[in-house]
User: Fold this.
Amino acid sequence: MKILIVDDFSTMRRIIKNLLRDLGFNNTSEADDGNTALPILQSGNFDFLVTDWNMPGMQGIDLLKAVRADPKLVKLPVLMVTAESKREQIIEAAQAGVNGYIVKPFTAVTLKEKIDKIFERIEAGAQA
Amino acid sequence: MDTEISNKDLLTKAQALVREVEADNEDQISKVLDEIAQLRESTLFQEIGKMTRELHDSLNSFRFDTRIADLAEHDIPDAKERLNYVITMTNQAAHRTLTAVEETIPISENLERQANDLNSRWQRLVRKEMDKQEFKILSREVSEFLPFVEQQSSKIHSSLSDVMIAQDYQDITGQIIRRVISLVQNVEENLVSLIRMSGQKVLSNNQASSSNKPKLEGPQINPQARADVVNDQDDVDDLLSSLGF
Assistant:
């Protein structure tokens, strides 16, 4: 399982990376905004994307839209981890095709729950 | 300048004063002195008038620039609230970290002490200095110690995870401080333009109104006070499930 973590704060990237390692995901890469993340996603076989919303350069929501617009990446599961907590934004992310949405500050338990749920749905979708 | 006491007027009065003093004409002396005082007073009144007009103009120009009023009424108190929230966040993170450390240190001390004790006895066993009875006790203690180490290690792991996740304050407070910095820049620019405006007495009422406010708001410091913002992860989950997620 290859995961890309996108956040402009290096501390948050490290926290997410460590939490993912605790959950058994050791193969992670990092990017600091959408502009750097997109080429990494396009060139590597990533299985999962964890992204912040508010970043300088390309924002998380635009990265999500770019991913959904790319035939190679269209099915990539995307988990948004962000401090943006306005309802209209959560709805916007849902409409753009996000698979999970976590508001900061969050707990290790929340991260695990959301990731588990995303994979459950994907498996259920594959069987159906 | 006509608002100032002209030297010619003053000289005339002064000469008149000298004349009257030499003539020792007391009535005339005080009359001339009054006239000189009047000259000064009228200049003073004109100066006050001028200053009043300038103050009035300045106040009007303040009114033109509603952005400054917005900054003072809304943005500055908001920035203060945000910075207070930063203090609360960093305080919580520091305490959370310290609590985890305080819980972990005695665990590691205890493990160290017990391992040390078992090790010295184990060395006696290796050197064949131990009798059967003592070996039985050591053996029982080692078999108790191993699962204890396992359990205590998982406690340490959980404390360390807590320390790690407590560092998320850096992201959240960083976002808040960035916003306050941009506000300070905004205030600075407005003050500079205000100074320029009053310095050159140029009134421009085409203040670029920043109508396209940043859409993203970042960390909410008081989500309970707003209906358009979720309070916590449960709210997010409810909202998403209402959308069929």
